[in-house]
Design goal:
Shape: globular
Number of helices: 4
Order of helices and strands: EEHHHHE
């Protein structure tokens, strides 16, 4: 599901794209997708946001945006999504 690899002295996090979309959908409200990407502080922020009604609404919007970004990137990557060591998307087209 998650594979940390290094390529030319840079660390990449590879996450199988189906798992990422499912994880975002099921556990995105509490920041599960951010923990998966290695963004612990963002995951904690979303986890604490769900305590309040306004924070829950903000987290739901955040999840929707993440799912849209994941859906757009779904066709760009053949098997796995790539993230850098900070959890940011690496938008490299893997298809030939």
């Amino acid at each position: 599901m998650v594979n940390k690899t290094s390529k030319m002295d840079k660390k990449y996090i590879r996450i199988e794209k189906n798992w990422y979309i499912l994880f975002t959908f099921l556990l995105g409200l509490i920041g599960g997708d951010r923990f998966l990407r290695g963004q612990t502080s963002m995951g904690m922020l979303r986890l604490f946001l769900t305590i309040s009604i306004i924070g829950t609404i903000a987290s739901l919007i955040w999840i929707l945006v993440e799912l849209i970004i994941g859906a757009i990137n779904y066709s760009k990557f053949e098997q796995d999504f790539l993230f850098n060591e900070n959890g940011k998307w690496i938008l490299i087209n893997q298809k030939n």
